[in-house]
Amino acid sequence: MTSAGFLYSKGIVFYPADTPPISTFLESNPGAYTTTRTHNNSASLLFWDRHLQRLSNSVKILLTSNPQFLFKSLNSTINPLLTPPPPSNPMLESTIKSLVNESINKVLPVALRETRNEGEELAVTALVTGNTEKLGEVKRNIFEALDVHVHVGSHVPHVFGVKGNGARVAVVGPGRNIAEAKYSDWVRLRKSLEKLRPPFVTELLLSNDGDRILEGCVTNFFVVCRKDNRNEKYLGGNENTLPYEVQTAPIGDGVLPGVIRQLVIEACLSKGIPFREVAPSWSEHEFWQEAFITSKPFGFYTFSLLLASIAFDQNSSNVINT
User: Fold this and answer.
1) What is the mean pLDDT of residues 200-211?
2) Which of 117, 130, 126, 7 is CA-nearest to residue 63?
3) Which end of the chain has fewer CB atoms at under 10 Å, N or C?
4) Is 60 exceeded by the pLDDT of residue 1?
């Protein structure tokens, strides 16, 4: 499959010749989105129910607090009778999930049939955007003003555990606004941070004070560190005698509730591993034993393999090397 892939938009399936790269498409269209990949020789979508739930949550957050990230050219001509649905509105969730699944079923079979090689997995991005023209026409049902676009492209899995395949990260800027929602405008906004990327760095980390690390531009960040002598409370009550704990910044500090992030938390709880939601502090990095980042393309590979493959450069205050 070509890097451009396939696109389903406004009821039409666009083939590779007419499909932009996913980054270009997201930069050009506002909205909430999620990206996953196929699994098991494209037999299913990885953790799809969780992705749909987060996508629905992101739409609700944007509708309530920042509709300009959902609707292009939002202005005062919008129907004044239209009010965002309450956050717990089950009809909104079911409508979004139905629209997204219907759209995926229009384009994914085409991509599988036309270009996929045996064993190749595909990256699938669903974008829910507000249609400003429709918004001016609808009465109170805001669901009628939502459009769904689906982009399908090649997925190249990362291989970890081999020298040179770990991550090299750098702290470059402050955290995101509305971090609890995943929205396409961030693809454009983070370009200013990309200009600060040091050579060979694979991910950029965010921190509001230069010490406590929140997350990466496209990942969640974790450390495994030695416990200190404080009596800390751990998720799930895992206050055992293990000499280490896993840390990651809490959602309330301004981080994306990543799908793999939640799976890591659940894995730690099920295995009795002490887990604390606190932003890892660089000033305490002497206690760090290991670190890892997680995101959709990495899946559990980051958790099981990268965990042992990242080391820290003690001579640098902001760059972490393999």
Assistant:
1) 91
2) 130
3) C
4) no
CA atoms within 13 A on the CB side of 285: 18
For the chain, helix (H) and strand (E) counts, in that order, are 8, 14
For the four alpha carbons of 53, 12, 184 and 64, in that order, the dihedral sign comes to negative
Collect all residues with Cβ–Cβ distance below 8 Å to 186 and sequence separation of at least 6: 176
Average pLDDT, stretch 233-241? 58
Percent of the chain with pLDDT over 90: 52
CA separation (Å) from 67 to 2, 72, 156? Answer: 34, 9, 34
Q: What single letter denotes the amino acid at residue 67?
A: P
| Residue 236 amino acid letter | G
Average pLDDT for 168-193: 92
- For residue 100, give Cα distances in angstroms to 121, 217, 261: 20, 25, 23
Q: What pLDDT shows up at residue 242?
A: 79
Q: Note the Cα 251 to chain centre separation in Å.
A: 13
Dmax (CA) of the chain: 62
Residue 155 pLDDT > 60: yes
Q: What share of the chain is helix, strand, coil (3-state, %, to 5)?
A: 35, 25, 45
Q: How far apart are CA 29 and CA 170, in angstroms?
A: 29
Alpha carbons within 13 A on the beta-carbon side of 28: 8
Q: Which residue has the higher pLDDT, 120 or 107?
A: 107
Place of tokens 């980054």: 23
